[in-house]
Amino acid sequence: MDYRGGPPITGVILAGGSNRRMGGKMKALLSINGELFIERQLAVLSTICNEILIITNEPAMFEQQLSWSQANVRIIRDHQPGNGPLAGVQAAMAAAYYDELWVVACDMPFISSVAAEMLLKLRRSRGEEGYDAAIPQLKSRLQPLHAIYHRRCQSAIDELLAAEQYRVMGLLERLEYIKAEDSFFMEKGVPLNFAENVNTPEEFNRLERS
């Protein structure tokens, strides 16, 4: 599906973390209301993405537990296991068929395609080339793991990882990106929980009770 007649885009689910704070349990395979996080994410990503990449160090876990209804899903190994989400984005950009990537962390059960569409428009809103990225800033906090990136960011990521610098915020310091604050989404009626993530069993228990 082409995004509103525009260029095709790649969806990326980062599922390569160690899950230490979750006691080693794969966060992508947690479930809410009987549906796995990753199943929810695949359904949402598939509404606007022409392909979806799952970046993981344990591909067999997903192949065994998930039955794909989408034909355009690929599982990609992390090129640099243990080096965090920046390494996952690097692997995604190297494998993606398309120049624009909607990147989400696997522990976000409420990702929003409407928010992503709005971010896409923002990224494309400056000249022919657009911005390097469009990043939500919710409650004064940047959310780089529910964001839109152009593939040209890969060179900056390569340089950071070669220098053993693994902070995603370190990447943003090198990019020309545009921020989207709370009001930007609220004006369109988009709930601000789309970047909410689950890191610990306590957070997951609160989510189940809500």
List its salient traits.
210 residues, alpha/beta, Spore Coat Polysaccharide Biosynthesis Protein SpsA, Chain A, eight-stranded mixed sheet, two-stranded antiparallel ribbon, cytoplasm, transferase, molybdenum cofactor biosynthesis, metal ion binding
Q: Can you walk me through this structure?
A:
- With 210 residues, the protein is an alpha/beta fold.
- The protein has one domain (3-209): Alpha-Beta Complex (Spore Coat Polysaccharide Biosynthesis Protein SpsA, Chain A), CATH 3.90.550.
- Helices cover 32% and strands 21% of the residues.
- It contains 8 helices and 10 strands.
- The strands form 2 sheets. Strands 1, 4, 5, 6, 7, 8, 9 and 10 form an 8-stranded mixed β-sheet that branches. A two-stranded antiparallel sheet has the order 2-3.
- Strand 2 and strand 3 form a beta hairpin.
- Helix 3 crosses helix 5 (154-162).
- The radius of gyration is 16 Å and the shape is globular.
- The N and C termini lie far apart (34 Å).
- Poorly predicted ranges (pLDDT <50, ≥5 residues)? none
Q: In angstroms, what is the radius of gyration?
A: 16 Å
Q: How widely separated are the two ends?
A: 34 Å
Strand content: 15-25%
- Please indicate the count of domains: 1
Count every helix, treating DSSP H or I runs of 4 or more residues as helices.
8
Q: How many β-strand stretches?
A: 10
Helix content: 25-40%
Kindly report the name of the CATH homologous superfamily: Spore Coat Polysaccharide Biosynthesis Protein SpsA, Chain A
Query: Overall mean pLDDT score?
Result: 86
Major beta-sheet overview: 8 strands, mixed
Report the CATH topology name: Spore Coat Polysaccharide Biosynthesis Protein SpsA, Chain A
Organism: Paenibacillus foliorum
Keywords: Cytoplasm, GTP-binding, Magnesium, Metal-binding, Molybdenum cofactor biosynthesis, Nucleotide-binding, Transferase
Domain MobA-like NTP transferase: 11-172
EC number: 2.7.7.77
